[in-house]
Amino acid sequence: MNGEQSPCAPSDAAIAWDQLKWSRHERQVRRLQARIVKATREGRWGRVKILQRLLTHSFSGKALAVERVTGNKGKRTPGVDGAVWLTPASKYKAIGSLRRRGYQPQPLRRVYIEKSNGKLRPLGIPTMRDRAMQALHLLALEPVAETTGDPNSYGFRKARSTADAIAECFLELSRKVSPQWILEGDIKSCFDRISHQWMLANIPTDTEVLGKWLRAGFIENRTLFPTTEGTPQGGIVSPTAANMTLDGLERVLKEHFPARVRDGKLGRRINPRVHLVRYADDFIITADSKERLETEVRPLVERFLTERGLELSPEKTRVTHISEGFDFLGCTLRKHGDTLLVVPSKKNVQTFLQKVRGIIVESRGIPQEMLIRTLNPVIRGWANYHRHAMASQTFKAVDNAIWIALWHWAKRRHPNKSGRWRAEKYWHHTRLQRWAFAIDTGERSAAGKTVWLKLARASDTKIRRHRKIRMDANPFDPEWYGYCEELALFRKRVHTGPRRSEHLLHEEDQQPVVKPAPHPRGLEPLEPDERKPSCPVLRGG
Hints:
By secondary structure, this protein is an alpha+beta fold.
């Protein structure tokens, strides 16, 4: 593969980039990744190192790495050198710059983003070349990470998502004999405190290149700061490296708490029901008693993390009974009797509504069409995230809150107009919705009918059962290719309905109904009726 193509051979780099046969390069990289999986499973680490070197020196791997960093959302975000690869010629020339000999990464550009608790999260932005080098080595590292990873780890892994983690929690906690106590764990500053020595000694990759990334430092306010611990958030390889650092915790728990252990007091065998579900640095551990979690499980977890330079966050780590409920990945899981309910958490709903209201307030002077196009992906994305939970009543309450915010938006725009005038200008009646925040786009359908642009509603999202991925599935293993492709097609078929983009409506869907004036007292938010669930309880599997 090293001699299959020379990046300097074509005279016109732009034409050469456009003529790359991506399916061929993807097939060759995938074949090498399958060989890495086989060698990892057999424990032949020398063979793994040889195959990784072969992949990182191949033209196909380098081309796919450049294509990844120039095709994502951060392609226009430069590093400390200010360089970006936007033209086909620059992308093709970048392939030849990905060489290990003489490689020295540049410092990261430090930026900050606000967290949900008001604190700032530091991010390190590498240069385009460093990003491409990380993407190249990640192609060789991911097959090892998937093969050796914990079965119930769902963060930063291919074909796995938060929905899989929530479904696994449901499977572990929904039965009558399920454990009743949960340890909610959160690692304090996980990315910033991982031990460099541990990663260099335990992560099977090119340690020379990995060490250079870890010690590259960062620039803030034109000052260079060294990095002695942690892996920078913002790097392509950082999530996988952090995930591999935490892998092994589930195996340690199974070794210390097997399915059947002898109780010293009672003299009989019991099942401690210790199970781990982890998404990145957030995890829960179940057990049959509060004492077991506090005196046995938590100290074991703390020792495991101490070896890696990490510690639990005291403010976010606590033990909870399932009847009280707990928040995990934006959902609240709580058991009422023998029934486990999974609903969007109050904090998640409030954060979403705060974001929507902020967009509406900031859009006081923009046209209605632009406001709808800004809100639609936000509303639809949040609703799709919670479509696997018991969220229909929450969706209705959210729609009502958005309606009220839009009514105040229209009132601020036209303070001297009547409520009936504002309703007739911005809202329309359709066959499926009485109050549709919509506008005439000026376009016409094939039949000559008017095309309307309608605001998306969360309640239009159907509640769907999520098919959880199997714990031992490996998307880099040829034995699992068929399963992963079938699972992806199933999820795509279930999650994408036959709807028009941006909620376009045709004139034949409109009904000439006289719109009543708004209620003089205004509208109050709808309160979900928790006693009458309107959708099935989430069931994974």
